[in-house]
Amino acid sequence: MRWFSLLDMAFDKKYKFSLSDSSFRRHDETPDEAFYRVPRFVSHIDPLAIDAVTALYREYLPEQGAILDLMSSYLSHLPEDRHYSRVVGLGMNDREMANNKQLSDWAVQDLNREPRLPFTDCEFDGAAICVSIDYLTNPVAVLTDLGRVLKSDAPLVITYSNRFFETKATAAWLYLQDEQRAYLIRHFLEEAGCYRDIELMDRSPEFGDLLFAVVARAKSNS
Known about the structure:
The protein is α/β, with parallel strands linked by helices. The chain is 24% helix and 23% strand. The protein is built from six helices and nine strands, in the order ββααββαββαβααββ. The protein has helices spanning 32-35, 47-60, 94-98, 139-149, 171-175, 178-192, and strands spanning 5-7, 16-18, 66-72, 86-91, 105-108, 126-130, 155-161, 195-202, 211-218. The strands form two sheets. Strands 5-4-3-6-7-9-8 form a seven-stranded mixed β-sheet, with helices on both faces. The chain is globular and about 40 Å long. It starts with a strand and ends with a strand.
């Protein structure tokens, strides 16, 4: 059974996605809060891939800005040589984020149950989602509300790797190859309707884990 179809595939890679509810089913449909209850004080990608994430943040996230680390955990991978006015984490495990030395504040929330973020309009100067967008069962709703809390022109840096919890990744994610997943994320951003200047890139190091990124800018909320 195919969960969605890829139509009009061409060499210019203009993918069109037809997604259904089953596209976002997972092998493990038990409550996410149970899966993430035990803290994991580890990095989920190898050191060279982490360096690639940090380089992206250095390039795109504004110094002195307020940054939202969405789907945060024990490590945020922000560059140590940059200062941000505040870094707010939103994730699934309080103990992980309490031990994240780069966070100034954090909140626990299951975005698959409640996609609306507990923040005010235009609160952040930039945002990051690191190797975790594949776990969202309603990514368009989350990205739409993320656009609400970002200031106009604020960057959003989404990264993903070839490493993830397969039982919690969505069917759509599992069906695609690594490169195609960037187009899926772009589709989510386009469906959200509040982003522009969407860039797809391969930032994989020469050795180790693969690392891909999708970067976009928030449109004006006015």
